[in-house]
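note to self: dont lose this again. the chain is below, predicted strucutre after it. 319 aa total, dont forget to put it in the shared folder this time
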Amino acid sequence: MPTWETNCIDDWETKVDAIVKETLPENMTVISGIPSWVQMYFEKIQQKTGKKVGDVFKNFKLFIFGGVNYEPYRAKFENLIGRKVDSIELYPASEGFFAFQDQQSEKGMLLQLNSGIFYEFIKADEFFNNEPKRITLQDVQLGVNYVMIVSTNAGLWAYNLGDTVEFTSIKPYRVIVSGRIKHFISAFGEHVIGKEVEQALQEAIVDSNIRVTEFTVAPQINPNDGLPYHEWFIEFENEPEDMVALAEKLDHSLQKQNSYYFDLIKGNVLQTLKITPVRSLGFQNYMKSIGKLGGQNKIPRLSNDRKIAEALSELKLVK
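---
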């Protein structure tokens, strides 16, 4: 599910309503999709029934996802479902099926080595050099952020997927998707990447009742007062009582992960990051305004400019 007729609906909101109508009477046991859009589906189910998703689908046991890191969504999902559900991560794309989570106890996804795909890797911090060095699997290292380049028997030749990956294991080869090479902040030379902001958020809200619906980060180069800073636009399901304390936790985690960011804070080049709350459904309305609601579209975690930030403000989607 959904049926072919429902899949052919162009308007995303109409499609989700049709999916809800089709699936409500069914015994849904496995659900798969990009977390941000499955979340919209779950919210509509809750609105229609007044029940937790886990009570509507009593045998729902497995969520299969891909496309984005699930951790920032996990607390919100567990609240919508009403209980914990096992999850499996996949790394699919139009260009090929690259990896899947083969062990619940292991971090990372097993890289597919026998599917007609030849992999090469470029260190992310060297990618924009004039002649970046490509290496093969035998030379990759743990914990290094790489841009993944693929050649396939379907006709791709040294194709840049745009994704960045890190290896969590060499024997066997396991990877995590750490972000997009074009999604980063380096307005001040810090080169903060998607994995770092996602981990910062995960660490900052762990063991709390804070649930985040969506977020993105942009640099504020010319603030009205004080030093420049990173501005986090966060849509909360339930806002924290102390926003300043949450910002400090985020900032501390980011400093711990990124030595360049640490140096800029300690050297008084940047001030501690600031949080700007986004109104309920703000990110959905933003994506709708640019014609990218649903499908494979995702909110960029990071921008090196303020296009998204300005759009959110212009549409009056920030508080």
